[in-house]
Amino acid sequence: MGLITGLCSFLYHLPQIYKWLLKPYYIMSFFMTVAFMVVRKAPGLCEHLATQREDGNSCDFDWRELEILMFLTAIVMMKNRRATFVMTCKPPLYMGPEYIKYFSDKTIDEELQRDSRVTWIVEFFANWSSDCQSFAPVFAELSLKYNCAGLRFGKVDIGRYGEVSEKYRVSTSPLAKQLPSLILFQGGREIIRRPMVDNKARAVSWLFSEENIIREFNLNELFQKSKKLNKSRGLKEEDQNGIPPEEGSDELQTESDNPQQPTESKKDQ
């Protein structure tokens, strides 16, 4: 029964797996992985390779190459139990559009506590983490869909700012598996954190997909409340100034509240 369930789950997610694997860096990684083995076994090419075999057969692996392959395989399996026998490259840094504000150790507390009506979703990441790099496009897409005056998105590099890591209790240790971490703040107070952390300071397994984040953080509900906040702000300004609303005023206010560019560029980070 378990085998059938696993097979059905694999077939259901097969289109997503193909879409994920057909990215250029995974294709290049696969070719780099098999290149040496193909050349070592290819007739016409292997004869020109050096070998330490006693029989002088250069078209087969010698003991030294077998030891290296076994050692690399063990390292990969120890680093990630779900890894396969394929050495993969790191995904490239995401440089696409986003509505995200980048914090430093001096600005994060001030921004989170500036307005109690604003809800912040902050990603704690590290540039060296491949999981954070893979999650960057997902978080950017969410910011493009849900960012508004009352719901803001931010990021802070805790690999660079160790004090922030300690204050918000997000470990950068690879063994803890807490990177990336998403925390929802309201009025400067932590409301929700994913992934959750157990008593041993290790992250509870959680899939960082767009659907899971929308569901766990109630983004649709928060977004609707934030739009009402925009309208209420506009009405208050009209009552105070005695000026009738102009067409598209809500849109202008939302655009003014949304930072188009982070205060700290990705290049500086």
TrEMBL record:
<keyword id="KW-0812">Transmembrane</keyword>
<dbReference type="InterPro" id="IPR039101">
    <property type="entry name" value="TMX2"/>
</dbReference>
<keyword id="KW-1133">Transmembrane helix</keyword>
<dbReference type="InterPro" id="IPR013766">
    <property type="entry name" value="Thioredoxin_domain"/>
</dbReference>
<keyword id="KW-0472">Membrane</keyword>
<dbReference type="GO" id="GO:0015036">
    <property type="term" value="F:disulfide oxidoreductase activity"/>
</dbReference>
<dbReference type="GO" id="GO:0031966">
    <property type="term" value="C:mitochondrial membrane"/>
</dbReference>
<feature type="region of interest" description="Disordered">
    <location>
        <begin position="230"/>
        <end position="269"/>
    </location>
</feature>
<keyword id="KW-0732">Signal</keyword>
<dbReference type="InterPro" id="IPR037463">
    <property type="entry name" value="TMX2_thioredoxin_dom"/>
</dbReference>
<feature type="domain" description="Thioredoxin">
    <location>
        <begin position="76"/>
        <end position="231"/>
    </location>
</feature>
<dbReference type="Pfam" id="PF00085">
    <property type="entry name" value="Thioredoxin"/>
</dbReference>
<dbReference type="InterPro" id="IPR036249">
    <property type="entry name" value="Thioredoxin-like_sf"/>
</dbReference>
<protein>
    <submittedName>
        <fullName>Thioredoxin-related transmembrane protein 2a</fullName>
    </submittedName>
</protein>
<dbReference type="GO" id="GO:0007420">
    <property type="term" value="P:brain development"/>
</dbReference>
